[in-house]
Amino acid sequence: MNLTIRTVLADEWEKARELRLAALLDPVAHLAFLEAHEDAVARPDDFWKERTANASAAGAGGVRQFVAEAPDGRWLGSVTVLVERPADEVRFGEPAKVDQTHLVGVYVRPEARGAGVVDALFRAAVEWSWTVRGIRRVRLYVHEENARAAAFYRRFGFVPSGERAPVPGGTGAYEVEYELLPPTAARPGGDAARAR
Questions:
Q1: Is the dihedral of CA 151, 105, 63, 10 positive or negative?
Q2: Residue 28: predicted pLDDT
Q3: How far is it, in rounded angstroms, from Cα 139 to Cα 196?
Q4: Distant-in-sequence, close-in-space partners of 123: CB < 8 Å, separation ≥ 6
Q5: 166 pairs with which residues across the strands?
Q6: What is the C-alpha to C-alpha distance for residues 47 and 156, in angstroms, rounded to an integer?
Q7: What pLDDT does 184 receive?
Q8: Residue 54: left if φ>0, alpha if ψ -120 to 50, beta else—which one?
Q9: Which residues have a Cβ under 8 Å from the Cβ of 8 and sit 6 or more positions away?
């Protein structure tokens, strides 16, 4: 599939909103996202403008949203990267013990699934993560019942970290944390650095 993977532009809030709302209508949205469609629809334009500007290259650098764009300009999917440091406020899950990035909001439109879109998005997100000063791992959470997503993350090289967090809302379900460590050659101390 011919597509471009790139960072959102600050003024593309309408496209960012449309893709997010589509994601929240997906049949597995209840397993993949911690936001309901009706809540997102009710958010004012200023929310979407600020969210998109912050996730662009013009933002402060703590968030980056990557999109997969078709030749006709339509967005086929997206992933957002949050930079997390131990001193930061916790957004979800366990507090950061090391400087890390956190992949969230993973979505590919149904008609583009199976065409390598999610692989391309993840490559961009992970490659960008390793360019951020001090980053020692990339993490994400997956609902314990979302076997399809978990299988993709494992295929990409993520492994369960042993941590999990309760899904908000008191459902009794859990999100399982997966992590990806940088390539050994890029890490000080090589294999010794992998030991915890």
A1: positive
A2: 84
A3: 16
A4: 5
A5: 174
A6: 32
A7: 67
A8: alpha
A9: 15, 16, 52, 55, 56, 65, 66, 67
